[in-house]
Amino acid sequence: MRSVYVRILVWFFGTLALSMIAFVLVWRFISLRSFAGKPTELNAMMLEEATEAYESGGSQKLKDRMKYLHQFFPGEHYLTDANGFDLATGKDRSSLLALIRSEWGVAKRSQGCFIMGTASSNGRYRLIAVLPLPFEVWPSILYYLLILFAVGMVCWALALSIASPLRNLARVVDRFGRGELSVRVKSRRRDEIGALAAAFDLMAERIETLLTSERRLLQDISHELRSPLARLSFAAELVRTAEDRDLAVWRFKKEINRLTHLVSALVEMVRAEEDTTSCNLEEVRLDTILNEVVADCEVEAAARNCRINIDADSNLGMLGNGELLRRAFENILRNAIHYTPEGTAVDVTLKACADTVLITVRDYGPGVPEGLLSKIFQPFFRVDDSRDNMTGGVGLGLAIAHRAIKVHHGQLHAENVNTGLLVRIEFPKD
């Protein structure tokens, strides 16, 4: 049986059938055992009362007494003499007496009933009890079939509630495996099956994001490599044919350096995508890292005739990867330095808020068009007018910073201010 639905039903019905068989067997065993012993005190008491009624009032009084006793005790009871004649009605009960004459007090089964006899102490009287069988299956079979049907319906509903979502999950997994990356289970159950469906949805979401990102990255890389490779091919041709070989070699090396820088940036972005569980986590001081990054970038700022102003609270720490955070801060700060006008400053702040740690980097450059603010953290994105391939990098610096901050459970936003661009970094407090 490969179907969970059929297997559940078979197990339920099998368990129910075994339970009913066990119930019948146990009940019959207990009932039969209750008739298999010596005469009970009840039989002796009935014999004594019937004998007293007969001796004191004859057959009529015996009839009245037996009628009275039959109101409280099931079956038929007859008081006979030693030969089996009914003392109340005069009928011959010898055939019943013959069934029990050999062994008094032992119940004999005959014609759908039990026959039991009790003899008086003087041997003159016999009390014959004809008792109905304590339990019969066939007369009650309809009731058991109704019970079986009711329990079967409950079992069917339970099996359906378990098997149906599993079948649905199997269909969704099959569709996902065939390339429908957007398909989800979206189960509302709160049990283990619902937890399994939620885990699959979460896994599918991550896989879709990863595959979509990888496809987009591959397309971007293919596009970005086309131009430097074409220029490199042209420079190689110049080295072979140009009259000024030194100039041609210089241009050839320049294109190689650009290509090397692009590959290095790609490797750095891939590293930034690593999950923090695979990083070397340690307690890091954000103010220390930020001050070191500012010190490293001051030379570049001085070369562009601008300065860096920093206002950082002290003793602000978090659990993270120091090198990954350093690269993120450095990329954001270098980007601000690159686009702030000469004679201005780049403002850097580090503040502790109620639930977060806030880092801001502001330049006084041209800013970014409002419609493009949400795209500047995408790989290879450059604003056409002011941040092109000649004036800027390869468009990976802010993407690297975004992914490095994201794996530290932080958020990165950019907004235009009165003059320039403000980049906000927020980390949750531990």
- Spans of at least 5 consecutive residues whose pLDDT stays below 50 are 385-391
The profile of the biggest β sheet is: 5 strands, mixed
| Fourth-tier CATH superfamily name of the largest domain | Histidine kinase-like ATPase, C-terminal domain
Distance between the termini: 52 Å
What is the alpha-carbon Rg in Å?
Answer: 48 Å
Strand order of the largest sheet: 6-8-9-11-10
Structural class: alpha+beta
- What is the strand tally? 11
Which CATH-level-2 architecture of the largest domain?
2-Layer Sandwich
Q: What features would you highlight for this structure?
A:
9 helices; Beta-Lactamase; Helix Hairpins; Heat Shock Protein 90; 430 residues; 53% helix; four-stranded antiparallel sheet; 16% strand
Description of the structure:
With 430 residues, the chain is an alpha+beta fold. The chain has three domains: 36-136, Two-component histidine kinase, sensor domain (Beta-Lactamase), CATH 3.30.450; 181-272, Helix Hairpins, CATH 1.10.287; 280-428, 2-Layer Sandwich (Heat Shock Protein 90), CATH 3.30.565.10. The protein contains nine helices and eleven strands. The chain has a five-stranded mixed sheet. A four-stranded antiparallel sheet has the order 1-4-3-2, sandwiched between helices.
Per-chain topology:
Layout lengths: L3 H32 L5 H30 L5 E6 L12 H7 L7 E3 L2 E7 L5 E8 L8 H37 L14 H50 L3 H28 L9 E4 H18 L3 E6 L4 E4 L1 H18 L5 E8 L3 E7 L34 H10 L4 E6 L4 E8 L2
Helix pairs in contact: 1-4, 4-5, 5-6, 6-9, 7-8, 8-9
Summarize, please.
53% of the residues lie in helices and 16% in strands. The protein is built from nine helices and eleven strands. Helix 1 (4-35) packs antiparallel against helix 4 and helix 4 runs parallel beside helix 5.
